[in-house]
Amino acid sequence: MSINKQLKIGDLTAKLPIIQGGMGVGVSRSSLAGAVAKEGGVGIISTAQIGYDEEGFEKDQAACNNRAIHKHIKRAKELAQGNGLVGVNIMVALKHYAEHVKEAVAAGADVIISGAGLPMNLPELVSETCRTKIAPIVSSKRAAQLILKMWAHKYDRTADFLVVEGPKAGGHLGFSREQLDEIDTMDYDEEIRQIIACKEEYEKRYEKKIPVIVAGGNLRQSRY
Ligand SMILES: Cc1cc2nc3c(=O)[nH]c(=O)nc-3n(C[C@H](O)[C@H](O)[C@H](O)COP(=O)(O)O)c2cc1C
C-alpha cells in the first residue's frame, strides 16, 4: 500500500497520516511510539499506569507515573530521530489527569489525545503558545459539538484535530449495550459525516484546518 498524503496538525507534520492508538497499561510506551514515529507516523504513549515498573511504584504511584511520562516521551523522541510525531493518550477518567497533561507538555509532547470522558478543561492545561497540540476523542456528533462549543466559549479556542472512535473501537466510548447489539446494522458513516460538518463551523471561525482521524473500523473516512 502506498500512502502519499502527509498529516498536518497546525505547524507539525507527520509524513505518514497514521496515528497509532494509545494502549495502556504498558502496551504503548516509548518503544512502540518511538518506532511508529521513526517511520514517519504519530506514535502515541498511553499514560495509564505508565510508571508501573518504576522503582517505588507501590509507595507512590502518582510520582512514578509522572516520572515515567517524562522519561518515555523523551525516549520515544530519541528513538524517532526527528521523524514523525510523538504524543500521549491521557484518559479523562484518570485520577491524576491534570498532572499527566502538565507533565506531557513539560516533556515536549507533540500531541495530547484525550478520551474516556469529555476533556472539557484540556485547553486550560495546555497553553496555546506551547508546541503541544490537543485533540479530544469523540464518538458522536453530540460529544463533538459539546466539546467544541465549550472550548470556544470558555477558552476562545478549538481542537487541533479530532479523533473519532466508532463502536468497533472498543474502550470507554459511551455506547449502550443495545447500540452494541446492533453494531453490524448501525450507520456510523452518517455520524462521522455529522462530526465533520460540526468541525467545519470551527475551522471557519478559527481559520485553521481541524483534521479528523477515525479509528475502530472506519479507516476510509479520515479527512486531513
Ligand atoms: C490493549 C489496549 C489498551 C488500550 N488502552 C487505551 C488507553 O489507555 N486509552 C485510550 O483512550 N484507549 C485505549 N485503547 C483503545 C484504543 O486506543 C482504540 O480502541 C483504538 O485506537 C481503536 O482504533 P483501531 O481499532 O482503529 O485500532 C486500548 C486498546 C487496547 C487494545
Keywords:
15% strand; 7 helices; six-stranded parallel sheet; 224 residues; two-stranded antiparallel sheet; alpha/beta; 37% helix; binds flavin mononucleotide; TIM Barrel
Characterization of the model:
The chain has 224 residues and is α/β, with parallel strands linked by helices. The protein has one domain: Aldolase class I (TIM Barrel). The protein is 37% helix and 15% strand. It has helices spanning 30-38, 61-80, 97-106, 122-125, 141-155, 177-181, 188-206; strands at 7-9, 12-14, 42-46, 85-89, 111-114, 133-138, 162-165, 212-215. Strand 5, helix 4 and strand 6 form a beta-alpha-beta unit. The radius of gyration is 17 Å and the shape is globular. The model has no long low-confidence stretch (mean pLDDT 93). The structure holds flavin mononucleotide. Flavin mononucleotide (FMN) binds at residues 21-24, 27, 46, 48, 89, 91, 115-116, 165, 169-171, 215-216.
Taking the alpha carbons of the first and last residues, their distance comes to 19 Å
> What is the top-level CATH class?
Alpha Beta
> Largest sheet, described in full?
6 strands, parallel
CATH superfamily: Aldolase class I
- Count of distinct structural domains: 1
- Unreliable segments of 5+ consecutive residues: none
Number of helices: 7
Query: Nearest-angstrom radius of gyration?
Result: 17 Å
Counting copies of identical and different chains, the oligomeric state is single chain
What structural class do helix, strand and pairing data support? alpha/beta
Instruction: Tell me the overall shape.
Output: globular
Task: Give me the count of strands.
Answer: 8
CATH architecture: Alpha-Beta Barrel
Question: Could you report the average pLDDT, rounded to the nearest whole number?
Answer: 93
Bound molecules: flavin mononucleotide
Strand content: 15-25%
